[in-house]
Amino acid sequence: MLERLLILSAVLFCIGLYGALSRRHLIAVLISIEIMFNAVNIAFVAVSRYVTPAALRVGGGVTGPVEPLVLVGQSFALFVIVVAAAEVALGLALVIAMVRRKDTVDISEINLMRG
Amino acid sequence: MENLFQEVVFWMLAVITVGAALAVVHTQDMFRATLALVVSFLGVAGIFVLLNAEFIAVVQVLVYAGGVSVLVIFAVMVTRDVPEGNRNTRVQPLALVSAAGLLLALIYAVVEAQWTVLPDDLPGPVAAALVDSPAQLGQLLLNEFVLPFEIAGIVLLAAVVGALGLVRER
Protein backbone atom coordinates (compact mmCIF):
# COMPACT_ATOMS: atom_id res chain seq x y z
CA MET A 1 0.00 0.00 0.00
CA LEU A 2 2.82 2.40 0.86
CA GLU A 3 4.62 1.76 -2.42
CA ARG A 4 1.61 2.47 -4.57
CA LEU A 5 0.85 5.67 -2.66
CA LEU A 6 4.43 6.86 -3.15
CA ILE A 7 4.23 5.95 -6.83
CA LEU A 8 0.97 7.90 -7.13
CA SER A 9 2.75 10.81 -5.48
CA ALA A 10 5.68 10.50 -7.92
CA VAL A 11 3.31 10.41 -10.91
CA LEU A 12 1.48 13.54 -9.74
CA PHE A 13 4.78 15.31 -9.03
CA CYS A 14 6.11 14.58 -12.51
CA ILE A 15 2.86 15.69 -14.17
CA GLY A 16 3.16 18.96 -12.25
CA LEU A 17 6.83 19.30 -13.17
CA TYR A 18 6.06 18.75 -16.84
CA GLY A 19 3.29 21.34 -16.71
CA ALA A 20 5.45 23.89 -14.89
CA LEU A 21 8.26 23.51 -17.42
CA SER A 22 6.23 23.29 -20.60
CA ARG A 23 3.32 25.76 -20.31
CA ARG A 24 3.71 29.42 -21.20
CA HIS A 25 0.64 30.79 -19.43
CA LEU A 26 1.67 32.22 -16.03
CA ILE A 27 -1.38 30.84 -14.23
CA ALA A 28 -0.84 27.42 -15.80
CA VAL A 29 2.67 27.35 -14.35
CA LEU A 30 1.30 28.32 -10.93
CA ILE A 31 -1.37 25.62 -10.83
CA SER A 32 1.14 23.02 -12.04
CA ILE A 33 3.23 23.93 -9.00
CA GLU A 34 0.10 23.44 -6.86
CA ILE A 35 -0.17 19.88 -8.24
CA MET A 36 3.44 19.29 -7.20
CA PHE A 37 2.66 20.52 -3.65
CA ASN A 38 -0.25 18.08 -3.51
CA ALA A 39 1.98 15.21 -4.59
CA VAL A 40 4.43 16.00 -1.81
CA ASN A 41 1.58 16.11 0.70
CA ILE A 42 0.40 12.65 -0.34
CA ALA A 43 3.92 11.33 0.26
CA PHE A 44 4.11 13.01 3.69
CA VAL A 45 0.77 11.65 4.88
CA ALA A 46 1.40 8.17 3.46
CA VAL A 47 4.78 7.87 5.16
CA SER A 48 3.25 9.25 8.37
CA ARG A 49 0.55 6.58 8.25
CA TYR A 50 2.74 3.58 7.36
CA VAL A 51 6.31 4.21 8.54
CA THR A 52 6.76 6.70 11.40
CA PRO A 53 6.00 4.54 14.45
CA ALA A 54 8.39 1.80 13.28
CA ALA A 55 11.11 4.43 13.00
CA LEU A 56 10.28 5.55 16.53
CA ARG A 57 10.65 2.00 17.83
CA VAL A 58 14.06 1.57 16.24
CA GLY A 59 15.40 5.06 16.90
CA GLY A 60 14.51 5.39 20.58
CA GLY A 61 15.75 8.41 22.49
CA VAL A 62 12.30 9.99 22.43
CA THR A 63 11.14 11.54 25.70
CA GLY A 64 7.54 12.25 26.57
CA PRO A 65 4.45 10.70 25.00
CA VAL A 66 5.06 8.95 21.69
CA GLU A 67 1.51 9.06 20.32
CA PRO A 68 1.56 12.65 18.96
CA LEU A 69 4.78 11.90 17.07
CA VAL A 70 2.79 9.53 14.88
CA LEU A 71 1.33 12.67 13.32
CA VAL A 72 4.59 14.50 12.50
CA GLY A 73 4.10 13.77 8.80
CA GLN A 74 0.56 15.17 8.93
CA SER A 75 1.74 18.39 10.58
CA PHE A 76 4.41 18.73 7.87
CA ALA A 77 1.60 18.43 5.32
CA LEU A 78 -0.21 21.26 7.13
CA PHE A 79 2.86 23.50 6.89
CA VAL A 80 3.17 22.68 3.19
CA ILE A 81 -0.48 23.73 2.73
CA VAL A 82 0.20 27.04 4.52
CA VAL A 83 3.24 27.80 2.37
CA ALA A 84 1.34 26.83 -0.78
CA ALA A 85 -1.51 29.18 0.15
CA ALA A 86 0.95 32.05 0.69
CA GLU A 87 2.69 31.20 -2.58
CA VAL A 88 -0.52 31.19 -4.60
CA ALA A 89 -1.69 34.51 -3.11
CA LEU A 90 1.61 36.20 -3.96
CA GLY A 91 1.88 34.48 -7.35
CA LEU A 92 -1.57 35.60 -8.47
CA ALA A 93 -0.84 39.14 -7.26
CA LEU A 94 2.28 39.05 -9.42
CA VAL A 95 0.20 37.80 -12.37
CA ILE A 96 -2.22 40.70 -12.00
CA ALA A 97 0.61 43.21 -11.59
CA MET A 98 2.23 41.81 -14.74
CA VAL A 99 -1.02 42.04 -16.71
CA ARG A 100 -1.42 45.69 -15.67
CA ARG A 101 2.14 46.56 -16.50
CA LYS A 102 2.90 44.61 -19.68
CA ASP A 103 -0.52 43.28 -20.73
CA THR A 104 0.74 39.73 -21.14
CA VAL A 105 0.54 36.39 -19.33
CA ASP A 106 3.23 34.76 -21.46
CA ILE A 107 6.23 33.86 -19.29
CA SER A 108 8.64 34.15 -22.21
CA GLU A 109 7.77 37.84 -22.63
CA ILE A 110 8.53 38.66 -19.00
CA ASN A 111 12.16 39.74 -19.05
CA LEU A 112 12.30 42.86 -16.89
CA MET A 113 15.50 41.66 -15.24
CA ARG A 114 17.34 40.65 -18.40
CA GLY A 115 20.72 42.39 -18.45
CA MET B 1 -14.04 -7.55 2.17
CA GLU B 2 -13.05 -4.23 3.68
CA ASN B 3 -9.65 -4.53 2.02
CA LEU B 4 -11.29 -5.07 -1.36
CA PHE B 5 -13.43 -1.98 -0.77
CA GLN B 6 -10.33 0.04 0.11
CA GLU B 7 -8.54 -1.19 -3.01
CA VAL B 8 -11.44 -0.20 -5.26
CA VAL B 9 -11.75 3.25 -3.65
CA PHE B 10 -7.99 3.80 -3.87
CA TRP B 11 -7.83 2.98 -7.56
CA MET B 12 -10.85 5.14 -8.35
CA LEU B 13 -9.35 8.10 -6.48
CA ALA B 14 -5.93 7.56 -8.06
CA VAL B 15 -7.38 7.47 -11.58
CA ILE B 16 -9.51 10.58 -10.92
CA THR B 17 -6.60 12.52 -9.42
CA VAL B 18 -4.05 11.63 -12.11
CA GLY B 19 -6.57 12.11 -14.92
CA ALA B 20 -7.57 15.52 -13.61
CA ALA B 21 -3.91 16.51 -13.21
CA LEU B 22 -3.24 15.49 -16.82
CA ALA B 23 -6.25 17.55 -17.87
CA VAL B 24 -4.84 20.57 -15.98
CA VAL B 25 -1.55 20.27 -17.81
CA HIS B 26 -3.07 19.68 -21.25
CA THR B 27 -6.20 21.84 -21.39
CA GLN B 28 -5.77 24.94 -23.52
CA ASP B 29 -8.60 26.88 -21.86
CA MET B 30 -7.40 28.11 -18.46
CA PHE B 31 -10.89 28.14 -16.92
CA ARG B 32 -11.41 24.46 -17.70
CA ALA B 33 -7.92 23.69 -16.45
CA THR B 34 -8.83 25.31 -13.13
CA LEU B 35 -12.00 23.23 -12.85
CA ALA B 36 -9.94 20.09 -13.49
CA LEU B 37 -7.57 21.32 -10.78
CA VAL B 38 -10.47 21.39 -8.30
CA VAL B 39 -11.32 17.77 -9.21
CA SER B 40 -7.69 16.81 -8.63
CA PHE B 41 -7.69 18.54 -5.22
CA LEU B 42 -10.83 16.68 -4.18
CA GLY B 43 -9.31 13.37 -5.28
CA VAL B 44 -6.25 14.07 -3.12
CA ALA B 45 -8.59 14.88 -0.20
CA GLY B 46 -10.22 11.46 -0.69
CA ILE B 47 -6.81 9.80 -0.57
CA PHE B 48 -6.11 11.61 2.72
CA VAL B 49 -9.35 10.16 4.14
CA LEU B 50 -8.21 6.69 3.06
CA LEU B 51 -4.98 7.31 4.99
CA ASN B 52 -6.80 8.12 8.27
CA ALA B 53 -5.85 11.80 7.92
CA GLU B 54 -9.33 13.28 8.17
CA PHE B 55 -8.17 16.64 9.46
CA ILE B 56 -5.73 17.11 6.58
CA ALA B 57 -8.51 16.10 4.20
CA VAL B 58 -10.82 18.80 5.62
CA VAL B 59 -8.03 21.40 5.43
CA GLN B 60 -7.36 20.30 1.85
CA VAL B 61 -11.00 20.83 0.87
CA LEU B 62 -11.23 24.19 2.68
CA VAL B 63 -7.90 25.70 1.62
CA TYR B 64 -7.33 24.17 -1.81
CA ALA B 65 -10.73 23.29 -3.24
CA GLY B 66 -12.26 26.33 -1.52
CA GLY B 67 -9.69 29.12 -1.25
CA VAL B 68 -6.92 28.53 -3.75
CA SER B 69 -9.23 27.51 -6.58
CA VAL B 70 -11.43 30.60 -6.09
CA LEU B 71 -8.32 32.81 -6.18
CA VAL B 72 -7.12 31.10 -9.35
CA ILE B 73 -10.55 31.44 -10.98
CA PHE B 74 -10.56 35.17 -10.14
CA ALA B 75 -7.12 35.56 -11.70
CA VAL B 76 -8.24 33.64 -14.79
CA MET B 77 -11.29 35.89 -15.14
CA VAL B 78 -9.20 39.06 -14.77
CA THR B 79 -6.71 37.91 -17.40
CA ARG B 80 -9.38 36.51 -19.71
CA ASP B 81 -8.86 38.81 -22.70
CA VAL B 82 -5.09 39.07 -22.48
CA PRO B 83 -3.42 37.60 -25.59
CA GLU B 84 -1.79 34.29 -24.78
CA GLY B 85 0.50 33.64 -27.72
CA ASN B 86 2.01 30.20 -28.09
CA ARG B 87 0.85 27.48 -25.78
CA ASN B 88 4.08 25.75 -24.89
CA THR B 89 7.63 26.84 -24.24
CA ARG B 90 10.51 25.95 -26.51
CA VAL B 91 11.83 23.45 -23.99
CA GLN B 92 8.65 21.33 -24.05
CA PRO B 93 10.31 18.13 -25.39
CA LEU B 94 13.10 18.56 -22.87
CA ALA B 95 10.51 19.03 -20.11
CA LEU B 96 8.73 15.85 -21.17
CA VAL B 97 11.97 13.86 -21.19
CA SER B 98 13.16 15.18 -17.83
CA ALA B 99 9.78 14.64 -16.15
CA ALA B 100 9.61 11.07 -17.50
CA GLY B 101 13.19 10.41 -16.42
CA LEU B 102 12.52 11.73 -12.93
CA LEU B 103 9.39 9.57 -12.75
CA LEU B 104 11.32 6.44 -13.67
CA ALA B 105 14.04 7.26 -11.13
CA LEU B 106 11.49 7.88 -8.37
CA ILE B 107 9.56 4.68 -9.12
CA TYR B 108 12.81 2.71 -9.12
CA ALA B 109 13.78 4.23 -5.76
CA VAL B 110 10.36 3.51 -4.22
CA VAL B 111 10.29 -0.10 -5.44
CA GLU B 112 13.88 -0.86 -4.49
CA ALA B 113 13.81 0.70 -1.01
CA GLN B 114 13.34 -1.58 1.99
CA TRP B 115 10.26 -0.22 3.79
CA THR B 116 9.48 -1.39 7.30
CA VAL B 117 5.74 -1.04 6.95
CA LEU B 118 3.29 -1.24 9.82
CA PRO B 119 0.93 -4.22 9.93
CA ASP B 120 -2.60 -3.64 8.65
CA ASP B 121 -4.13 -3.80 12.15
CA LEU B 122 -2.24 -0.99 13.85
CA PRO B 123 -0.73 -1.32 17.34
CA GLY B 124 -2.99 0.22 20.00
CA PRO B 125 -1.37 3.61 20.75
CA VAL B 126 -0.76 4.36 17.07
CA ALA B 127 -4.36 3.60 16.17
CA ALA B 128 -5.55 5.75 19.09
CA ALA B 129 -3.40 8.68 17.91
CA LEU B 130 -4.77 8.37 14.39
CA VAL B 131 -8.39 8.20 15.55
CA ASP B 132 -7.96 11.27 17.75
CA SER B 133 -5.81 13.05 15.17
CA PRO B 134 -7.16 16.66 15.33
CA ALA B 135 -6.56 16.90 19.08
CA GLN B 136 -3.16 15.20 18.81
CA LEU B 137 -2.20 17.46 15.91
CA GLY B 138 -3.09 20.49 18.02
CA GLN B 139 -0.89 19.20 20.84
CA LEU B 140 1.96 18.59 18.40
CA LEU B 141 1.68 22.01 16.73
CA LEU B 142 1.62 23.91 20.02
CA ASN B 143 4.39 21.90 21.72
CA GLU B 144 7.01 20.45 19.39
CA PHE B 145 6.33 22.71 16.41
CA VAL B 146 5.31 25.95 18.10
CA LEU B 147 8.08 27.99 16.43
CA PRO B 148 7.28 26.81 12.86
CA PHE B 149 3.60 27.35 13.70
CA GLU B 150 4.16 31.01 14.63
CA ILE B 151 6.48 31.55 11.66
CA ALA B 152 3.78 30.11 9.39
CA GLY B 153 1.41 32.77 10.72
CA ILE B 154 3.93 35.53 9.99
CA VAL B 155 4.58 34.10 6.51
CA LEU B 156 0.86 34.20 5.74
CA LEU B 157 0.56 37.77 7.02
CA ALA B 158 3.58 38.88 5.00
CA ALA B 159 2.23 37.14 1.89
CA VAL B 160 -1.18 38.80 2.18
CA VAL B 161 0.30 42.26 2.82
CA GLY B 162 2.76 41.71 -0.02
CA ALA B 163 -0.03 40.66 -2.38
CA LEU B 164 -2.03 43.78 -1.47
CA GLY B 165 1.04 45.96 -2.02
CA LEU B 166 1.68 44.38 -5.43
CA VAL B 167 -1.81 44.91 -6.83
CA ARG B 168 -2.43 48.38 -5.31
CA GLU B 169 -3.45 51.04 -7.82
CA ARG B 170 -0.91 53.82 -7.96
What brief labels describe this structure?
heterodimer, A: 115 residues, mainly alpha, Helix Hairpins, elongated, B: 170 residues, Four Helix Bundle (Hemerythrin (Met), subunit A), 2 domains, 7 helices, 0% strand
Characterise the protein shown here.
The complex is a heterodimer of chains A (115) and B (170). Chain A is 74% helix and 0% strand. By secondary structure, chain A is mostly helical. In chain A, helix 1 (2-22) runs antiparallel to helix 2 and helix 2 packs antiparallel against helix 4. Chain A is built from four helices and no strands. Chain B is mostly helical. Chain B folds into two domains: 1-82, Four Helix Bundle (Hemerythrin (Met), subunit A) (Up-down Bundle), CATH 1.20.120.1200; 120-170, no CATH class. Chain B is built from seven helices and no strands. The interface between A and B is large, with 80 and 89 residues.
How is this structure best summarized?
The complex is a heterodimer of chains A (about 120) and B (about 170). Chain A is mostly helical and about 120 residues long.
Summarize the helices and strands and which ones pair or pack:
The complex is a heterodimer of chains A (115) and B (170).
Chain A (H helix, E strand, L loop, with lengths): L1 H21 L3 H25 L1 H8 L12 H31 L13
Chain B lengths: L1 H25 L3 H21 L3 H25 L13 H21 L11 H8 L1 H11 L2 H22 L3
Helix pairs in contact in B: 1-2, 2-3, 6-7
| Distance between the amino and carboxyl termini of chain B | 64 Å
Oligomeric category: heterodimer
Name the helix and strand elements of chain B from N-terminus to C-terminus, one letter apiece. HHHHHHH
The total of beta strands of chain A comes to: 0
The backbone outline of chain A, from C-alpha atoms, is: elongated
Count every helix of chain B, treating DSSP H or I runs of 4 or more residues as helices: 7
CATH architecture of the largest domain in chain B: Up-down Bundle
Q: Which series of helices and strands of chain A comes N to C?
A: HHHH
* Secondary structural class of chain B: mainly alpha
What name does the CATH topology of chain A carry? Helix Hairpins
Q: What's the Cα radius of gyration of chain A?
A: 19 Å
**Shape label of chain B:** globular
| Uncertain residue segments of chain A | none
